[in-house]
Design brief:
Elements lengths: L1 E10 L3 H12 L4 E4 L29 H9 L6 H20 L4 E5 L2 E4 L5 E3 L2 E3 L2 H15 L3 E3 L2 E9 L2 E9 L2 E12 L8 H8 L7 E2 L8 H8 L4 E2 L4 E7 L15 H6 L1 E3 L13 H9 L7 E6 H6 L4 H6 L4 H7 L4 E4 L2 H8 L3 H17 L20 E13 L2 E3 L5 E3 L5 E7 L4 E2 L12 H22 L1
Parallel strand pairs: 1-2, 1-10, 2-7, 10-20, 11-17, 18-21
Antiparallel strand pairs: 3-4, 5-6, 8-9, 9-10, 12-18, 13-17, 14-15, 15-17, 16-17, 19-20
Length: 467
């Protein structure tokens, strides 16, 4: 078996992987970055990103205290990790610029990867934004003497003398041993692994639509668990409700976004009953539906005013995402409407009495601001639903999973007793402990990747100087 050696081995070449590799090389380490895809820039979610550098919905230059409090308010964050993330967000923006990654600030504190790009409409993303960012990092890595090898898949971790010493890999179908004094797992989450989705998210979560990288098959999580790593928050993912047409038509992957219909309408199951607090937001509602007995059986109910207003939805104008109206109709979306709730019930195939009772209860609670008689509470600022009524069959679309290997503020992977596993680090979507929770708990995928990549890269490089 052929053997490659390095000081810091990074497994997975998304934004987190390139960041960790560059940061380790900047700290003087001999770095090798491997990726299982055959792409020259890996195959991570960053290649399909809009480029928004948000930290929990806030500017990454927000004070660390405010960022920390925001993330911890979900009640599931791990304090040492959240503290390190909060304190590093601002530094991460400066680091990206110094590394040659183009950024722009469209409004005070609203920071993006350079937005100049053509738009892909199937799926919708900015073609060049993520690619340009990782290309800049790859070039910097190579200038620093680091190596990048694709078509090389990590299969299992090597453990010797109480420390992780690299991976057994497969390169072009041939076995390969890659030795590193420290190893950083940046392999993404498990959104493309149907078995893991069923095990960790919900028994039928494999019926959800993948709207992220097909490379995210949980490789890092699988390898780390064998080493005794602790995994947390595995039931949560970042994603949105999308038209159920997406199950059979990739033109509906992953947009248009349906946030406004969730905020202003109600979600019903196949029996015509509400089952979730829509006011928690689109990400939280998508998670709830994914964990339900039938993730493909729900319908969003809204009215004509909401349909008309969706022509000018903020996400459509700010991110250049097609607005639901008229994009859904133009692309044969499963959209139904009727002047009566009974007519809509027949069109979408649910019990008319159940849906009529659900609507009446919902409108009464909205008007009276009293949800005590409702089986499901409603937060936010819902509106009365009036004829004509619309129904849109939906399915959760999963961009990336939020849970993974628990790390501390140094990027070290932790065992079941929350002690560091010597020589093992993790970053990006492979980690857990930062995102997730009842209200969605999204803190920004790109910022998680960059910040955790910086923490893992510089601390992995420091580790080899001490052993």
């Amino acid at each position: 078996m052929m053997t490659l050696t390095c000081q810091v081995l990074v497994v997975g070449a998304g934004l987190a992987g390139f960041t960790a590799a560059v940061r380790a090389a900047e700290n003087g380490a001999d770095v090798l970055l491997i990726d299982k895809s055959d792409g020259e820039f890996g195959g991570g979610n960053v290649l399909m990103a809009s480029g928004s550098l948000r930290a929990g919905g806030k500017s990454p230059r927000t004070t660390p205290t405010e960022l920390y409090d925001f993330v911890m308010s979900e009640g599931i964050g791990y304090p040492l990790l959240v503290k390190a993330w909060s304190e590093t967000c601002g530094r991460a923006v400066d680091w990206l610029m110094n590394a040659g990654v183009g950024l722009e600030e469209t409004a005070p504190g609203r920071i993006w990867l350079n937005q100049e790009s053509e738009i892909s409409l199937a799926p919708v993303y900015k073609k060049d934004v993520g690619t340009r960012a990782v290309a800049a990092l790859k070039a910097r890595l190579q200038r620093l003497g680091g190596r990048f090898i694709n078509d090389t898949e990590g299969l299992s971790l090597i453990s010797e003398r109480g420390s992780v010493q690299g991976v057994i890999a497969r390169q072009s179908s041939q076995p390969l041993e890659v030795r590193g004094r420290t190893t950083i797992l940046c392999t993404g989450g498990f959104s493309a692994n149907k078995g893991m989705l069923r095990k960790y998210v919900g028994p039928r979560a494999d019926q959800c639509k993948l709207r992220g990288s097909p490379q995210d098959t949980g490789d890092g999580l699988r390898m780390a668990l064998v080493m005794g790593a602790k995994a947390v928050n595995l039931q949560y993912f970042y994603g949105h409700l999308i038209s159920r047409k997406a199950l059979t038509d990739d033109r509906f992957w992953p947009y248009p976004r349906l946030d406004s219909f969730v905020n202003e309408g109600m979600l019903i199951d196949g029996e015509g009953h509400r089952f979730v607090d829509e006011g928690r937001g689109d990400v939280a509602v998508a998670n709830e539906l994914a964990r339900s007995p039938d993730p493909t059986g729900a319908t969003l109910i809204f009215d004509h005013d909401s349909w008309e207003a969706s022509k000018n939805s903020p996400s459509s104008t700010s991110l250049m995402i097609p607005a639901p109206n008229p994009w859904l109709l133009d692309n044969s979306g499963e959209l139904f409407w009727s002047n009566t709730i009974e007519g809509l019930s027949a069109a979408i195939g649910v019990n008319a009495d159940n849906l009529a009772a659900t609507l009446a209860q919902y409108n009464h609670a909205v008007e009276s601001k009293d949800w005590s008689s409702s089986t499901v509470l409603r937060s936010g600022n819902p509106k009365l639903l009036r004829s004509p009524f619309y129904g849109l069959r939906v399915v959760p679309g999963i961009t990336f999973t939020m849970g993974g290997v628990l790390i501390n503020g140094r990027g070290e992977a932790l065992d079941s007793a929350e002690n560091p596993i010597r020589g093992l680090y993790a970053a990006g979507d492979a980690i857990g402990g930062l995102m997730g929770g009842y209200r969605g708990g999204y803190t920004g995928g790109l910022m998680q990747a960059v910040v955790s990549g910086i923490l893992a890269g510089e601390n992995a490089a420091d580790y080899i100087k001490m052993v």
